[in-house]
Description:
- By secondary structure, the protein is α+β, with helices and mostly antiparallel strands.
- It contains 18 helices and 8 strands.
Amino acid sequence: MELNNREFATLIWMAIFIGYVFFKDQDGRATNALIQLLRAFLSPKIIMVVAWATFWIALCVWALHYAGAWEFANLKTTLLWGVAFAFVTVLDVGRISEDHAYFRKTVRDTVSVAVVLTFIAEAYSFSLASELILIPLLTMMSGVKVISENHPTHAQVGRLATAILIMAGVAYVINGLYCVASDFQTFATWNTVREFFIPIVLSLLFLSYLYVVSVVVSYEKNFVALQWAVKDDALRRYAKVQAITRFCLDLDGLRRWKRHVCLFHPISREDIRRSIDEIKANQIREIAPPSVSRELGWCPTDATQFLKAYELETCDYHRIDDGQWWANSPMRELSGAAIMPDNIAYYIEGDEKAVKCLKVKLNVNDRLNGAASDSEFQTICAALLKAADVDVSPVLQEQMFYQDDIDVDAGGRRVRVHRQDFVNPAKGYSRKLAVDYRLN
């Protein structure tokens, strides 16, 4: 339970910061802000989630203690883990519910080699005076690094901050390794083993609780849209029951269904059942996509992945109107101005069985970056033509990207390139490539 110098220094700086804020708070703004923060935190939903999280952690600790893997001497490590990991992740569970890869990434990070180095670095600290200097310095460098990531003009300062943080991390690891080598007998104890594994085991066990909460949050967030998409109260209750029983833990299917309901506004129970059936059928078709002949277009499942290597993978291919289906990628920002960077996106359109048109659209919001963005657009378009098996000769491909408008036959496919200035031509322009599955 003893605190090391780094933990003492952290508490000292926290006390200084809090004292300074309240000493300077002559008009009471900081106090009012703190009161508002506490009120927000004390909302019934947050209290319930935190209370159940505390109960789950206590249950896990009891199980570890019963198995002989936790002792009272490990309480400090458990409390620090509870604040640094459990408490923070619970408050951010809304974002977790939208991040499909969160649990996979967390498991990977929890059992990585970096965890060993971090444990060694944190097991030993420098002198109290050194820690009192290092903590505010490294905190400031971390803030500079975060700010520079959102402001390309400060990239050089960000690189300096990153270098300082890396050197500090290396110094902590070297100090830890030296202390371990100098007094290995003191380090190599069962308590050290428990201190190392307890945060890992608790993190893995806590993920199950996080998953349950993320499922509940996902349903709650997606059901909000039903308030205006389904006007009838009885039908809305029926829709919720159907969604819970049919989708269960399939959160991706739930999100797709919510979008479908918002697009088509079902007015009967039959509409609700058909909407869920359509989502389920789409998911099955993605798992085992039927072959699509060249004369009909492209396989939707394949088309969504044509530009995955360029971070332009689309969402699921879905119906947006009777007979009209489409999917789009998120806008990918290119290097450019900090306020309005250039961006590019990928779209596919067609019917239920096949994609009929592939599109790439570039928006150049700053003409100073036009050459670099045009070059990226050319690279991506060439990759799309290759993935879509569109036969374009090198000469024709060169013409396509250095002329404002092109409309050509490429092996039975229609390839069009169009450039258009914005309303204010001085601001920027857009470029669009469209590939149709046939000429007319």
